[in-house]
Write a structure and sequence with these properties.
- The protein is of the alpha/beta class.
- It has five helices and nine strands.
- The chain has a seven-stranded mixed beta sheet with strand order 2-1-4-6-7-8-9, sandwiched between helices. Strands 3-5 form a two-stranded parallel ribbon.
- The protein starts with a strand and ends in a 20-residue tail after the last helix.
Length: 180
C-alpha cells in the first residue's frame, strides 16, 4: 500500500517506520506540505492547532481515506464535532480516528508483548477496512468504537483520562470474554 503521512514526528514518523517494516511504501510530509496524490491512504499526525494549516499545504487529498491521530493537547476548533470531522472538511473522503490512544514512545516495544495491544478506532464505513489493516500492520489489534460520530469520545478519552495513565508508558487490551 502507498501511505502518505502528514507529520514526521513521534507518531507520523513512528508509524511510517512500522508500516515500512510491514512492507508498505511510505512518504512523509512535514510542515512544508507536499503532494499526496499517489497515496492509497493518508495519515494526519500533526498538533491539534495545526490540522487545517497542514492539510491546506497538501494537494491530492480529495476523496482519499484518511486516518486522523490528533488529540486536543494544543486546543481545538470547536466549529467541528471532532478533529476527524475537521480533517473530513478538507479531504471530503472517508475518515477514521485511530492511533490517538496509543503511545508513540512504545512503538518499538509492540512486538515484545505477550499479546498484541489494542488500538481503539472510530471510522466511516468506507475507511474501516484500510484502518483495520494498518492497525494490524503496526502491530496492534483493532477495536472499533463505531462510526465517526464517536471520534470526539476517543479524543476526550485521551485528554480526560488515558493521557494521565503511567505518563505515556502503557499498552492496553480490549477483548471479548474468553480471549484474554
Amino acid at each position: 500500500m502507498n501511505i502518505t503521512t502528514i507529520g514526521r514526528g513521534n507518531i507520523g514518523g513512528g508509524l511510517a517506520r512500522l508500516w515500512e517494516r510491514a512492507g508498505h511504501t511510505v512518504t512523509t510530509l512535514g510542515s512544508e506540505g507536499g503532494d499526496a496524490s499517489g497515496a492509497d491512504v493518508v495519515l494526519v499526525a500533526v498538533p491539534s492547532n495545526a490540522v487545517s494549516d497542514a492539510l491546506g499545504k497538501v494537494s491530492g487529498l480529495e476523496g482519499k481515506p484518511v486516518i486522523d491521530t490528533t488529540n486536543a493537547f494544543h486546543g481545538r476548533d470547536e466549529q467541528y464535532e471532532s478533529f476527524a470531522h475537521e480533517v473530513k472538511s478538507h479531504t471530503t473522503g472517508p475518515v477514521a480516528k485511530a492511533f490517538n490512544a496509543n503511545f508513540a514512545a512504545l512503538y518499538d516495544e509492540i512486538g515484545n508483548q505477550r499479546m498484541r495491544p489494542s488500538c481503539l478506532y472510530a471510522a466511516d464505513d468506507e475507511a474501516r477496512e484500510v484502518t483495520e489493516q494498518l492497525i494490524r500492520d503496526a502491530g496492534y489489534d483493532p477495536v472499533s468504537v463505531g462510526g465517526l460520530e464517536n471520534a470526539r469520545a476517543l479524543e476526550d478519552f485521551v485528554t480526560g483520562l488515558f493521557g494521565k495513565v503511567e505518563a505515556g508508558r502503557t499498552f492496553y487490551r480490549f477483548a471479548p470474554s474468553g480471549e484474554l
